[in-house]
Amino acid sequence: DLKRYCNEKGIGLIGDLPFYVSYDSSDVWANPHLYLLDKSLEPIGVAGTPPDYFSEEGQSWGNPLYDWKAMKKEKYDWWVKRIAFHLKHHDALRIDHFRGFEKFWYIPNDETKDARKGHWEKGPGLDLFEQYEKQFGSAPIIAEDLGTVDDNFYSFLEASGFPGMRVMQFAFDGYSNSHHLPHNYIHNSVAYTGTHDNNTTLGWIWDMSEEIRSQACDYCHIPLSEWGQGG
Predict the structure, then answer these.
(1) Which residues carry out catalysis?
(2) Whole-structure pTM value
(3) Please, what sign has the CA dihedral across residues 48, 20, 99, 34?
């Protein structure tokens, strides 16, 4: 009902889908064969990320990892149904940690407290989305492409055809040619002021250094006096 009401007003809804699910979830307990679990149904490895600009120690999220070989045998039916369900309620769907489809960070279960001891494993690639398209047509997906990414991932994203993200708060980092600066945006991208990992825009501009604040205000043609500078 909400989606219908918004659409009537010319407004579209963007959903936000986590890449992983919780270990203590109906998804895992109803489909244990689709996850990397041992005979006691305990995770043999957990999800996370290596060290990046958000965390020098990396991040261990604790989510169980998908058994992509098992999912492929079922033509990724669980993922296809998951995406289809959410697109009934949204006009587009942002998938968090999209890079996990290309490769994912595997942290052994005995090293869950130290994300640095993980390693990369190959993801399912675009086969999953091809299976979705066979049943439902092209998916209006927004790919979260932040964090630790490389040229291989950007090639993967380009091949997918899905738009990536540009985040205004990431643009002013002291480098003049950041791809998050609006004049560097490519056509196939979706622009955000910030994400759930960031401060509010007001908090962000107050907390930044004077040099970066001046850079941001100059770029946006905002007088510094409007932010309490110079009177």
Answers:
(1) 96, 144, 197
(2) 0.89
(3) positive
